[in-house]
Structure formats: structure tokens, C-alpha cells
Amino acid sequence: MANDVRQGAAPSGRAAASVPLDAAYAACEALTRSKARNFYYPIAGLTRDRRLAMCAVYAFSRGADDIADEPGIEDRPARFTDYRRRLAAAFDGSPEGDTFVALADAIRRFRIPRRPLEEIVEGAEQDLTVARYATFDDLRAYCAKVASAVGLVCIEIFGYSDPAARAHAEALGIGMQLTNILRDVGEDARRGRVYLPADELARFGVAEADILAERATPAFRELLRFQIARAREFFANSEGLFPLLTRKARFCPLAIRGLYLRILRKIEKRGHDVFGERIALSGPAKVACVIGAWFRAWGC
């Protein structure tokens, strides 16, 4: 296998840590459980080492997002510079703080490459300076940083049998990020951001002013139908990923994909109106999705 780490495998080394490793992982897991329930449901059934590594990756990604989005943060560019320094320190064996102590251990344990983690930070930082995308190619490049890069990190944790898994993981990440963008159009508009490509707004006759005013016009609903179909194409292109993953881990991305497909269906049931109350899945729906993914994983 290209990367198939056994449960309980020991790290190849132990870096000096500013906090105890168990405490660092516990903090990452608590953050994931409280802030990312759609993510935590699928990872809860992973082996302990994989689950904790996924929580470290979430905490790292969340930290980058928070620098860009959380109110009250001063000098965001300097904060990103420091975040990149702390990532480099994690690779150099001198991690600082809960997130990076846990991440450094996950990096060693699962041989996580550096570049996708750097891209996650670059993508979050891009939100400071880019609030519009002219074309889908531009948007896809952004999605590759903030989502496909996460997928490339995650498959190292899952373990996979063929390098072709990387392209499928990239497609899954883009499908997920497009779903996030569609669900959060209103929330992003309140931050002054419009992620939907400008040339496609023009093609469907959607005025940016309507999005900023959170008006679900007939033209906007047609645009959403088009975008949902595109997201589903990326999810379809990710189908080849699952048989290439370690059998004990493949249910996790299957469940995550299933949850995101359910979000797309909820957008459709709302008549493609994503303004107002944020679209969310119920606890029973999440559990049903995870159980279904578990059974499917063992049939791949």
C-alpha cells in the first residue's frame, strides 16, 4: 500500500512538545466534536490513531479558517505568517500548542506531506484579499487549496493502495467545497463575499445585488440548480476512491460524501433558497448516513 498505517503503530520519532501529546489530541478531539459534527460522526468509528489524526487535521484547518473569518482578530496577515511558521516548526520537530503538537505527531505517524498543509493555509489566507471569482476555473483553484488539499491529507491517514486515489480525493474535496459554498451563500454575502463565478451569474441573469440582499430570485434558483449538478459530477468522479482505501477506513469518506449529498438534497427541497435559516442535517439523518456507509464500505 502507498500508505497503510496499522492501528497502534508507533511514531517514528517524538519531537519536543510544548504540551503533553495526549492532552493535545484531547483538545483537538473536543474541538472537532463541538464544532464539526458533520465531520465527527464519520470519523468517530475510525481506529483511535486515525480518529485522533483526523481531529488534529480538523483543528489545524479550523485554525486557519478562524484567522480569516473570526471577528475581532487584529493584523490577520501577520497571524497567517505566524501560522505558517508554526507549521514549519511542527515539521522541524518543535511544535507549539495543542493543535501543532497533535499535528506533528500525525505527520510523523502517517507520513503526511507538507505541501497540502501549506495549501490549506494559503487558501484560508486568500479569503483576506479575494472576495469574487471571475470564472469557475478560478473558483476551482481556490477549492483545490481549501478542500482538495484536505482530502490529500486525509487519504494518507486512511491508507490507500494506488496513487490514483489522489485524483479521486481531489474531486471529492471540490464537490464538498462547492456544497459548502452553495449552503453558505447568504452567510458569505454578509461577509461581502460572492464565491459563485461572475461569468455564470451573468449567464443566468443573476444580479450580484440580489445575492448581497439575500433574494432568492427565479434566476438565482436556476443558477443553484446548475451548481448542484456540477457538485454532483465531482462527487460522481470521486467514486473510484473508496475501493482504493484501507477497508477499515473507507466508510469514513463514504459517510462524509453521503452527508454532503444529503445537504444538496435539502437545498433542492427548499426550492434552491439558501437564504434564511442555515441548512443542517438532523442527528438521526447523520447516524443513518454513517451506518449506510459502514455497510457499503464492506461491500466495496
CATH architecture of the largest domain: Orthogonal Bundle
- How many distinct folded domains? 2
Supply Rg.
19 Å
CATH superfamily of the largest domain: Farnesyl Diphosphate Synthase
Secondary-structure-based class equals mainly alpha
The number of helical runs is 14
Tertiary shape? globular
Largest sheet descriptor: none
Q: What proportion strand?
A: under 5%
Taking the alpha carbons of the first and last residues, their distance comes to: 17 Å
CATH topology title of the largest domain: Farnesyl Diphosphate Synthase
Q: What is the helical fraction, as a range of percent?
A: 55-70%
Mean pLDDT across the residues is 92
Q: How many β strands by DSSP?
A: 0
CATH class term of the largest domain: Mainly Alpha
The string of secondary-structure elements, in order, is HHHHHHHHHHHHHH
The residue ranges in which pLDDT falls below 50 over 5 or more consecutive positions are: 1-17
Task: Give a description of the structure.
It is a single chain. With 300 residues, the chain is mainly alpha-helical. It is 67% helix and 0% strand. The protein has helices spanning 21-35, 37-43, 48-69, 76-92, 97-110, 114-126, 136-158, 165-183, 185-190, 198-204, 208-212, 218-237, 251-269, 283-297. Mean pLDDT is 92; it is low at 1-17.
Main attributes?
mainly alpha, Farnesyl Diphosphate Synthase, disordered N terminus
